[in-house]
Amino acid sequence: MNAELPGLDQLRELPLPAPVSYWPQTWGWAVLALLLAVVAGGLALRGLRRWRRNRYRRKALSELGQIEAAAASDPLAARGLPALLKRTALAAQAPGGKAAPLTGEAWAAWLARNGPPLPGDGARLLATLAYGPDAAVRTLDPAEVRRLLAAARHWMERHHVAA
Predict the structure, then answer these.
(1) 106-118 pLDDT tens trace
(2) Cβ atoms within 10 A of the Cβ of 148, count?
(3) Number of folded domains in the chain?
C-alpha cells in the first residue's frame, strides 16, 4: 500500500503562471493611451492659459475686496471703485478697445453690454464716486453703495474677456 502513494518528500510545488504584463498587448490600446495623454495635455495647457489670462481679474477682485472692507467704515473709500472698474475693463479688452474714452451713461451701457448690468442708477453713483465732492459721497445711501460694490464684483467675475 505504501508503494502506491508518493511520500511527502516526493511532492513538489506547482509552478506559478507568468506575471501579467501592464503593457498593452495590442497596438490599439497603446494608441488609445497616447490619444488620452494628448487630450489631457491639451486640456492642461488650455487651463493654464485661461488661468494666466484671468490674472488681471484675480487682482481686481482682490483690490475690490479691500475697497469693500474699507468702505464699510469710511464711505470715501468707495471712491476707488470707478477707476478699478475702468482698469479692469481696459485689461480685459484687446489693445485699441473702445472702453477708454467712455464716461457716464455710455460707460454704464458698455459695462452692461459686456457683462452683468450695474444697478439702475449705477452710472450716477459711479459719476458721484469719481467726480463728486466728498460731501456728496458721504451723503450717498450706504445700501446703494453696497449694491453697487456687489454689482461691480458680479461684473468682474462674469464679464467676457475679449480674445
Answers:
(1) 888 888 888 777 7
(2) 24
(3) 1
CA distance 84 to 53: 18
With b for 16 or more beta-carbon neighbours within 10 A and e for fewer, the 36-53 pattern comes to eeeeeeeeeeeeeeeeee
Q: Is residue 2 part of a domain?
A: no
CA 112 to chain centre: 20
Question: Would you say 141 and 125 are in contact if contact means Cβ atoms under 8 Å apart?
Answer: no
- Give a yes or no: residue 103 inside a domain: yes
Domain of residue 64 covers: 55-158
Q: Model confidence over 26-85: pLDDT tens digits?
A: 888 889 999 999 999 999 999 999 999 899 999 999 999 999 999 988 889 999 999 999
How big is the chain by its Cα radius of gyration, in Å? 33
